[in-house]
# Entry
Amino acid sequence: MKSEKPRRFINCYVSTQACNFKCDYCYIGQRKIFDNEMFTCKYPVEVMRKATSIERLGGVCIFNLCAGGETLLGAHIIPVIQMLLENGHNVSIVTNGTISDTIEKILAFPRQLLEKLYFKFSFHYFELKKKNLTDIFFANVSKVKNEKVSFSIDITPCDELIPYIDEIKGIFDKYMNGAMPHISVARDTTSRELKILSKYDKEEYKKIWSVFDSPKFDYKIEEFLKPHREYCYAGNWSFSLELSTGNCRICDGAPEPGKMDFYNLYENPDEEIPFVEIGCNCPTAHCYNCHALLTLGTIPELETPTYAEMLDRVDAEGNHWLTEEMREFYSYRVGDSNIG
# Structure
């Protein structure tokens, strides 16, 4: 992987609308649209394989897989993950870390595939505690770590979690040898301006959650409600893919469904993809996924941390969450591949 650079970041929506957790801050839960649907694809895996080839996409891409519910609940996602890795792409999986059987099946993939895999574990304190799954969560993290597969652990903060911050830090001292979780910023997806989902203002919210010293949080809170009107290559250097249908949209920040749809990736897999660019027309109050899109260089002129810094942590013994190869890969920007 050392000689490779990411060509595009493809944010994949996995249409599993079911979850074994019910978190108040969940962006799907906010809209109350869980319907217990499981991911299935309308196209055969071999069509998807051809449609997502390195040749067609112009190089190795980062496929980020995240469901409307829990990404690893549906069994049909496993062959799709394997296919994308076999195609030579980098795959990241967002998961609550409790679907042990599926995690073990993925970890049974050949070694050369696991080297291109990254797990983003979401630590949901209240649900883990209520369902007595904390030990299982960290056991699954350990399985991934022991296989030398890259991972990170994130917390989406909520006001109800504030009294438990010291307890959470103690949990990570115990289970992760002092490496603290990264902190995200919770969005109120019912508001057009995507404001912070908290009763606190931005400065107080920043003060509260900065105790975890998370570079991801520091960058996201700095960018929150900061509009960007510079030329952005979203739609070309990055885009969003509905994994089950092949529908592509310029960016997840589209204010309305269908507003930024531009292509179906699967319908004509021999066809050249007509990439578009949002340019200076971003419609959102701030970059919807700044920790990935901006750090990976969709606005090349911006000085940002690297994507690797948004994910990696180092424990008390100097062990990294990302492998050396993955740290290097995630430190490049998509613009480094000279996409026109």
User: Anything to note?
Assistant: DSSP finds 14 helices and nine strands in the chain. The radius of gyration is 19 Å. The first helix runs from residue 27 to 31. The chain has one domain: 8-337.
